[in-house]
Design a protein that fits this description.
The complex is a heterodimer of chains A (about 350) and B (about 280). By secondary structure, chain A is mainly alpha-helical. Chain A is built from 14 helices and 2 strands. A two-stranded antiparallel ribbon of chain A has the order 1-2. The N and C termini of chain B lie far apart (about 65 Å). The chains are: A mainly alpha (about 350), B mainly alpha (about 280).
């Protein structure tokens, strides 16, 4: 791997960073929905209220990152965008429906009167229906996202030819490896959400609830990650080989392991802020490991970053646009977080 | 196409960016304050309970935000029209139902374009109007559809009718808004002018319909191109078969969400606190 970096690699790198932000921030929103679905025990209602409170104010903002990934893909790498749009038409459409339903259901749920989340009463029951839709869409969407990533990593997304409908539009993404990546994505999002919620919880009992959930999710991530790595040798040989034999592989696995162990140790010792940093680091490293394993390919086995890239002038203009956009976006985001996520002052 | 862009393509891109920016600005200013149902419910409530302070204040806020935008809208629309005249003459011809190239072209209000016969029937024609609006010169030549190859025409009737709807409703909203702003400026009590409230009830769904009509003009008007002069829509569509399925699914999804939103807005205004001016003070 030579360090041959041009504007195409820089734009691809920015897309990866945006995807990382989406997974770390938006992913936790999905995870929150999963815990809403799995809410249980004596503090069921408080768990759901905490999730809604944590997601509520910054929820639309997190989709900025997914929009950025899509925009960078179609301006910077139109050939890759076209191929993904064609071959992943079905899971991407379903994912979009999931995102739309999730957002709408979350908003509608909070509109159904003061009886929101309460048992009984017309408003309460309708609110529960929307809550159920919100929770199911929250679990289904990451699964579909994982299926898409799995299809991409497996090298099955070749240029669409004249093979039949199933061979072109279904078979590439509906694979055991794809399902493995889907389950891993689900586990990672649930893990992130539970860890973040330990920091946000206002009282010790609720914090303990999410600490236990975070530890459980960490085990699920561990199992799913190794299961997927095993499936990779059959379903995504290129990826499997790169992740086991590449010269950078040991260092990457070591770093990921350190982050994972730190997260679990910090959760065990109830050092929640450290756990949050370590968990985010662990998830980012898994994502970057995938990107590194398929470099220089944007869509393995044949479409490289360079081959898919737009003309140089477009890439350079996109990079300038990113700088200008960042100058607006980052201060706004920081302000948003400061307004909504600061510790409540005790009076 | 990958080998660098020519001057004409760059000009087209430049125009499309500007056009999009203007269109987006227009849609935002129109659609937001006049969030159809909301205003409708609000004004309806003011009519029913004229002494409810909550409704009166909400109406004043909506008007303060929405009315200036509606009044300024025609100016941005005029700017937009001149861009189209210069860069997309086919689209302009379709918007106006203008078939024959002529100097001193009239502005057609209403009417039905007959593509086969190559003329627009039943329109009110204002002499020199189109030349004046598009090029600021009453004798300027405006190219007609018949001077362009048939395969480059958008569906003329849809574009023309949508444009008439947009301009008609936009003008109505600008007038009503100007009247409301005038009364507010003179510190008159708006709720005493029931004709204004009734006019506002009519205006409520119009902002929404107007914005939709505007999108139809933009998107249908640039057919058969998806990128003007570079790529045709037919070349850009996915080879995925059975596209009617996602079309119906997404249409159904949004229609369903629309119904829920309308119902929720209705509920919200009904539930609003009943307070008279004395309570609020």
């Amino acid at each position: 791997m030579t360090a041959d970096l041009g504007p195409a690699e820089l734009v691809a790198g920015c897309a990866l960073l945006a995807l990382t932000a989406y997974v770390l921030l938006g992913g936790a929103d999905f995870g929150g929905g999963i815990w809403d679905l799995l809410a249980a025990g004596p503090r069921k209602k408080q768990q759901r209220a905490l999730i809604a409170e944590a997601i509520g104010p910054i929820w639309e903002a997190n989709h900025v990152w997914l929009i950025l990934v899509v925009v960078l893909l179609f301006t910077g790498f139109p050939a890759a965008f076209a191929r993904l749009g064609i071959t992943l038409h079905i899971p991407l459409s379903l994912m979009l429906i999931g995102i739309v339903l999730r957002g709408s259901a979350f908003t509608f749920r909070s509109h159904y009167g003061p009886g929101h989340g309460q048992e009984g009463g017309e408003g309460g029951r309708t609110s529960q229906h929307w809550g159920r839709i919100f929770a199911i869409a929250s679990a289904g969407t990451p699964l579909l996202l994982g299926l898409c990533v799995g299809a991409l990593a497996s090298g099955a997304l070749t240029a669409p030819g004249h093979a039949g409908f199933t061979a072109t539009f279904v078979a590439p993404w509906l694979t055991p490896f794809g399902v493995g990546v889907g389950v891993l994505t689900l586990a990672l999002f649930a893990f992130l959400a539970a860890v973040y919620l330990t920091v946000e919880a206002p009282e010790p009992a609720l914090r303990e609830d999410f600490r236990r959930r975070a530890l459980g999710a960490a085990v699920a991530v561990f199992v799913a990650a190794f299961g997927t790595l095993g499936l990779a040798h059959l379903g995504a040989p290129l990826m499997g080989r790169a992740l086991t034999t590449a010269p950078w592989a040991p260092a990457l696995h070591a770093a990921t392991a350190v982050a994972a162990v730190t997260a679990i140790w910090a959760l065990w010792r109830r050092r929640y802020r450290l756990a949050r940093v370590a968990a985010a680091g662990q998830v980012a490293l898994i994502l970057w490991g995938w990107a590194l394993a398929q470099y220089p390919y944007l869509i393995p086995p044949d479409l490289t970053i360079r081959a898919a890239a737009a003309p140089r002038i477009t890439l350079v203009l996109v990079l300038w646009a990113l700088v200008a956009g960042g100058l607006v976006l980052f201060p706004s985001l920081i302000y948003l977080l400061r307004v909504f996520k600061r510790e409540p002052t005790r009076s | 196409m990958a080998e660098g862009l020519g001057v004409s393509e760059l000009a087209a891109v430049h125009h499309n960016v500007l056009d999009t920016a203007i269109r987006l600005g227009a849609v935002k200013t129109l659609a937001k304050p006049f969030e159809a149902g909301e205003l409708l419910e609000l004004v309806g409530s003011v009519l029913r309970q004229p002494r409810n302070a909550f409704h009166r204040r909400a109406l004043a806020v909506a008007l303060l935000i929405g009315a200036p935008a509606a009044v300024l809208q025609p100016i941005s629309g005029d700017l937009s029209a001149r861009f189209v005249a210069h860069w997309q003459p086919v689209k302009l011809a379709a918007m106006e139902g203008h078939f024959k190239t002529e100097r001193g072209a009239p502005l057609r209000i209403g009417g039905w374009p007959d593509e086969a016969a190559g003329e627009t029937r039943y329109a009110i024609e204002i002499p020199y109007g189109l030349s004046l609006l598009a090029f600021k010169d009453p004798t300027a030549e405006v190219k007609g559809l018949l001077d362009f190859p048939r395969q480059d025409w958008p569906p003329v009737a849809i574009v023309h009718v949508a444009f008439q709807v947009m301009v008609g409703l936009g003008s109505y909203m600008a007038l009503v808004s100007a009247a409301a702003l005038w009364l507010m400026w003179r510190r008159r009590e708006l709720t005493r002018h029931r004709w204004l409230l009734r006019a506002l009830v009519l205006a409520a769904p119009m902002g929404f319909i107007c914005a939709e009509a505007g999108w139809i003009v933009t998107e249908v008007g640039r057919q058969p191109w998806i990128i003007h002069g570079i790529m045709r829509t037919a070349e850009a569509v996915t080879p995925m078969p059975g596209l009617v399925v996602p079309f119906l699914v997404f249409t159904g999804l949004y229609a369903g969400l629309g119904v829920v939103v309308a119902w929720l807005l209705h509920q919200q205004v009904l539930r609003s606190p009943e307070a008279t001016e004395e309570d609020a003070a």
